[in-house]
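ok so i was messing around last nite and threw this chain in just to see what happens. nothing serious, just curious
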Amino acid sequence: MNITPCRAKWKGTMTDRQRFNAQMHYRPVDRCFNMEFGYWNENFTQWDIFVKSGIRNNEEADLFFNFDAIQYVGSKAWIWPPFERKVISQAGATKIIQNDEGLLAEVPSDGHDTIPHYIKSPVTTPQDWRRLKAERFRRDDPARKVDVAALVRQHPPTRDYPLGVHGGSMIGLIRNLLTFEGLAYACYDYPDMVEDMVETACLLTEDFLDQALGRIDFDFATGWEDICFKNGPIVSLDFFKNVVTPRYKRISRRLRAAGIDLWWTDCDGDVRPILPYLLEGGINCLFPFEVNSCCHPGELLTRYGQELRIMGGFDKMELGKGKAAIQAYMESLLPLVARGGYIPFCDHRCPPNVKVQDYLYYLDLKEQMFGMK
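result:
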């Protein structure tokens, strides 16, 4: 990809891989790992720095800002084959689409970023689940076979960047499939169905990991469990503890046997009620850690000590308030970066209301405070 960076890479004496592993394991580093989680789609059409430079997506933006390199290996550990994405109908400012999980959703016709309004899920009863499971959750589907040799060529042992492996989604993708409200009801109306969905997600992830682990030297595992909102998780704590956490433990045993002791999950909202069960299951890092629906990252890092790591946690609301607010919040993160186990970046994708000059100030300040002196 031919992208001309607009900034110099932060100076350093370690490779990105060495730095990431040292920082996330509370060991000395030359400087903080420098990364961001990305930007809303509107940023690429509204920020002049992106428009004038032809930057169209987050991958290109990472190269443009010359962030430290970090890569991930995904899996086909869910619906396969995906449903056809298509427009069902359109009327005025909205259209009805079918997404790749078979849900019907109402979205803006102009394509701007928003949370879709889901109208219909392909699964509302155990009968629906049995049919879909037989059609699109086959463990013996040839498409689920991993081309490990190709991955080894793509990510050789001599690489200088950290590499993550997908550790699955035991409940987040189920929430996607059933919808937020659908999952809340199904846990009470059809608990056996939901547990079978969790078990299926676990088995498909184990099948993937059994092919990939031991052949590639991964540095960490990733996950996606977007089941919390500002008042906590949509599922009960008993359900999470008794149904979800045991599956995490199965995945964790595989990861740790392969030498992977860092596992993050992406769960927005207030994760505090389920955090003890995430940790019990082996997930020991929160990403990208939303502040306003939870708390300042320092609160949890103080409470859990070196048992927990956090990536993210720079309050996007403060980022949009101008330079003074940016500096004040950045200063509140100084002791967290110094202690280790914490990498600061915008808590989720940076929204377009942040002024470009303020964002560049944020990047400059981050380098000034956390770069190599």
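not much to say yet. The chain has two domains: 16-81+122-370, 84-121.
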